[in-house]
Design brief:
By secondary structure, the protein is of the alpha/beta class. It has 2 domains: about 280 residues, Rossmann fold, CATH 3.40.50; about 250 residues, Rossmann fold. It is built from 18 helices and 23 strands. The strands form 5 sheets. The chain has a 9-stranded mixed beta sheet, sandwiched between helices. The chain has a 7-stranded parallel beta sheet with strand order 5-2-6-1-7-10-11, with helices on both faces. Strand 21 and strand 22 form a beta hairpin. Helix 12 crosses helix 18. It is globular. Bound molecules: glutamine. Glutamine binds next to strand 19. One of its GO terms (cellular component) is cytosol. Catalyzes the ATP-dependent amination of UTP to CTP with either L-glutamine or ammonia as the source of nitrogen. Regulates intracellular CTP levels through interactions with the four ribonucleotide triphosphates. Pathway: Pyrimidine metabolism; CTP biosynthesis via de novo pathway; CTP from UDP: step 2/2.
Length: about 525
């Protein structure tokens, strides 16, 4: 029988529920349990696909093409197992399902209400992954903070679920903050007490409290929290700020969070968790033997969460190369032909980021011209790849005014163009080319060498594509289409001949990089940047 763990948050947002959930899952997985994590978000968007990255950070795409919350990226990076559209549910999706059923007549004669119809639909979704039989334990992270109006139906669903599941089958972990008052020189437990009181008002007694803190919480504080919040002393778990999120599983191991959970769920402790590979990764991460500076050229650089998966991919690939990757954010809007040299000076590699819309487009093209002409390693992802095609068209093939029809619908040379089947799409949500598609790599290409194979699948999120009418010209001039979708002939990878590393990918490799499997293109890009750094 599947056991269920719910993770709620109190006091403030941004306590890192996603990282705690992923870390706990990692420990349980390392003991031999089959674990998955799902996130329930209280906002009304059907999915985060239509949200500006400034609002909600990066949109993470799953194998099956769901546009999801960036926490799913953490789940995959920690667990090295893919998630799916069932792993991220929003209020919008819940209501949409209920309203669709109402229109079908499923509730005829009944008043459709938050309780029981919305809460029933939430509980049904909480069970979906557990009922596949693929998991021993399902962790459900409830987005938002307890007490928010939006979260209420989810909290009520958790209460009902826990009650129905019975003791030992479901538990609630509540994440709270223990602030340090510098003036008083003290850690304060009152916000935690209040937060637990609020949960109690909703009928939920948390089983475990994970306390985020900047200072160690001593036994007295633990006792106080335990007494006032009705939890065992070993269920008060300290979660200190860590220098890297990848330390958190080991911190939770030290606090015995996994053992407390297993005991409460009446599950065997099985083996000691096997974290050898994880520790090996951490060892490399913390003891780099070299350093590279890589420029990340994009338009959302003010908010690093917008490029979460790219940043994490650099961490994985850096550790693999025993090299510290210093990522320098470069706002593409500020790049001009005049200042590109100055802004990009001293970089050992440049990644041009994915993105949408015209802002910063010309700056990205300038960055690419600079690195192409100066033999600096280049990696373009999605829009970054499309920009490399535009740049090459304009400056090498002499296609004056070449562009993507996304930015310039009337360009004389639409080297990047919308696919036919996208042209009549009017809805914005969930209508891009999304999810996993196959790609054949040319033997001997840089991409094939990186992957060590010629048939791959990678995830997508875009509407525009390389325009194959120009394919022959590009190939003849040296920008090789080294990755092609075998089913429809679309160009997936381009790379430049006679350049140390110039690779553009139409797909998003950053979505598949994990601690256990750093992405090969990132590994080789970092290696090329390192080689460049050593020579220059
Ligand atoms: N805007 C481009 C497209 O839709 C690229 C998208 C992206 O970088 N994810 O094709």
């Amino acid at each position: 029988m599947t056991k269920y763990i719910f993770v709620t948050g109190g006091v403030t947002s941004s306590l890192g529920k996603g990282i705690i959930s992923a870390s706990l899952a990692k420990l349980l997985q390392a003991r031999g349990y089959r674990v998955t994590i799902q996130k329930f978000d209280p906002y009304i968007n059907i999915d985060p696909g239509t949200l500006n990255p400034y609002e909600h950070g990066e949109c993470y795409v799953t194998e099956d093409g769901a546009e999801t919350d960036l926490d799913l990226g953490h789940y995959e990076r920690f667990l090295n197992t893919p998630t799916s559209k069932a792993n991220n549910i929003t209020t919008g999706r819940i209501y949409q399902n209920v309203i669709n059923r109402e229109r079908e007549g499923a509730f005829l004669g009944k008043t459709v209400q938050v309780v029981p119809h919305i809460t029933d639909e939430i509980k049904r979704n909480m069970r979906i992954l557990g009922e596949t039989g693929d998991y021993d334990i399902v962790i459900t992270e409830i987005g938002g903070t307890v007490g928010d109006i939006e979260s209420l139906p989810f909290v009520e669903a958790v209460r009902q679920f826990k009650w129905e599941a019975g003791p030992g089958n479901a538990l609630v972990i509540h994440l709270t903050l223990i602030p340090f008052l510098a003036a008083a020189g003290e850690l304060k437990t009152k916000p935690t007490q209040h937060s637990v009181k609020m949960l109690l008002e909703y009928g939920i007694q948390p089983d475990i409290l994970v306390c985020r803190t900047e200072h160690h919480i001593n036994m007295d504080i633990r006792k106080k929290i335990a007494l006032f919040c009705n939890v065992n002393i070993n269920a008060v778990v300290e979660s200190m700020d860590a220098s890297t999120i990848y330390d958190v599983p080991l911190l939770m191991l030290k606090e015995k969070l996994d053992q407390t959970v297993l005991t409460k769920l009446k599950l065997s402790h099985k083996n000691e968790p096997n974290l050898d590979n994880w520790k090996d990764f951490l060892g490399r991460l913390k003891n780099p033997t070299s350093e590279v500076r890589i420029g990340l050229v994009g338009k959302y650089v003010e908010l690093p969460d917008a490029y979460k998966s790219i940043i994490e991919s650099f961490i994985h690939a850096g550790a693999k190369n025993e090299c510290k990757v210093k990522v320098q954010y470069i706002p593409s809007e500020q790049l001009t032909p005049e200042n590109a040299v100055e802004k990009l000076r001293g970089l050992h590699g440049v990644l041009v980021a994915p993105g949408f819309g015209e802002r910063g487009f010309e700056g990205k093209i300038e960055a690419i011209r600079y690195v192409r002409e100066n033999n600096i390693p280049f990696f373009g992802i999605c829009l970054g790849m499309q920009c490399s095609v535009v740049e090459f068209g304009r400056n090498v093939l002499g296609l004056k005014g070449a562009s993507s029809t996304e930015m310039h619908p009337d360009t004389p040379h639409p080297v990047i163009d919308m696919m036919e089947d996208q042209k009549n799409v009017v809805n914005k949500g969930g209508t891009m080319r999304l999810g996993s598609y196959p790609c054949d790599l040319k033997k001997g290409s840089k991409a094939a060498l990186a992957y060590g194979k010629t048939h791959i699948t990678e995830r997508h999120r875009h509407r525009f594509e390389f325009n194959n009418q120009y394919l022959k010209d590009y190939e003849a001039a040296g920008l090789t289409p080294s990755g092609i979708n075998p089913e429809n002939g679309l160009v997936e990878v381009v790379e430049l001949k006679n350049h140390p590393f110039f690779v553009g990918a139409q797909f998003h490799p950053e979505l598949k990089s994990t601690v256990a499997n750093p992405h090969p293109l990132f590994i080789n890009f970092v290696a090329a940047s390192l080689a460049y750094a050593r020579k220059n």
